[in-house]
Amino acid sequence: MNERSRHSRPLLPAFSPAIGLREVLDSAPDLVFSTDQWGRLVWASAAFETFTGRRVKDCVGHSCHELVLPAHAPGLMRAFLKARKPGAAPFVRLFDLQRTDGTTLSVDAHLRFLDSPDGERYMVGTMREQKAAAVPAPPWPLSREGPRLVTLVRRSGRDARAVELHRSRP
């Protein structure tokens, strides 16, 4: 094949029948999902199981708020209801998912509502795991007397939050 004919061939559309949108989304490391206007899961990518420890088919039709750490559920619900209003801007939220093995997973979620042609509203979103920032060792040795204080900082875009852990004397 000469150089000219290789570049003059017509290109296939990005999502040809050989590869569908579902396959592309399932290959992404981030969780991609959709809910109905009440927050019930409609669809999720393959990363759902990695993030939550649950199978997608077992969670379809259930509220996504059941997946969130209980302490984060009220704040997430307020943001969800605010974003559900027509014309509301997309929102970003940092929260913890409650996994089936009892562990939690901090995620950064980007969420927005879309109107379908049939008049229904759907929330679509992505979630990305948030890694805790590395904490450098203190420049001084920690004493065995008195309480100890360690501060961890998580950054997400312009947001930053600190978690303080207190430990009493051994």
The rounded Rg comes to: 22 Å
Shape estimate: globular
Question: What is the N-to-C succession of helices and strands?
Answer: HHEEHHHEEEEE
Strands of the biggest beta sheet: in what spatial order?
A: 2-1-5-4-3
CATH topology: Beta-Lactamase
Structural class: alpha+beta
CATH-level-2 architecture: 2-Layer Sandwich
CATH class: Alpha Beta
The number of distinct β-strands equals 7
**Helix content percent band:** 10-25%
Summed up, the helix count is 5
CA(first)-CA(last) distance = 76 Å
- CATH homologous superfamily assignment: PAS domain
Poorly predicted tracts of residues: 142-170
What percentage of the residues does DSSP assign to strands (E)? 25-35%
Count structural domains: 1
Quick structural summary:
The chain is of the alpha+beta class.
Characterization of this structure:
- The chain is α+β, with helices and mostly antiparallel strands and 170 residues long.
- The protein has a single domain (3-129), classed as 2-Layer Sandwich (Beta-Lactamase).
- Helix content is 19%, strand content 34%.
- It contains five helices and seven strands; from the N terminus they run ααββαααβββββ.
- It has helices spanning 3-8, 21-26, 47-52, 56-59, 73-83; strands at residues 31-36, 41-44, 91-98, 104-115, 121-129, 148-156, 159-167.
- The strands form two sheets. It has a five-stranded antiparallel β-sheet. A two-stranded antiparallel sheet has the order 6-7.
- β3 (91-98) and β4 form a beta hairpin.
- The model is unreliable at 142-170 (pLDDT under 50).
